[in-house]
Design goal:
alpha+beta; 37% strand; globular
Length: 169
Amino acid sequence: MTMLKSMLLAALLAVSPIAEQDQRTWAIAVAKHQALDRSVVYRYVQKFEPGFDKRAFPTRIDILWDYDSSFGMPSDDERDRMDVAENTFVPGVERDGSAALVYVETAEGRRQWSSYVRSEDEFMRRLNDALSSSEALPIHVESMSDPDWALHAEFLDGLKPQEQEESSK
């Protein structure tokens, strides 16, 4: 995550709110990968609904979808497949407030959906249920304990100086 933070600090191009869903405000940030001069696109929750308690979601789960690309971003067809998958699994895993998707990163041959969850076992059961009627997808899942949301905080901290710089222009 340290490389991510320095990449964002060095070359953030845009931060803009995109929508409010369930009283969550989502935003998009586009950065440039310094070494490769390619875009990295982040869609993330900028503001949670009132009363949202991060402490209730101690585990972070990342769903990773690797794809082939000579320019870093997925093809239109691959992106469409990813969007369909997301629209299929997110409602299932977030049902009853059991998980919260907090950001999606797309760059360099990978899309990553990062959620914080109440229970890893419940999340996996719901993910499998949601995707059971879908074709096999090129995804794998990683989980880690992050009760303080430290990884998410580091990501957001990487945005703050750029947001301030953008607003002062």
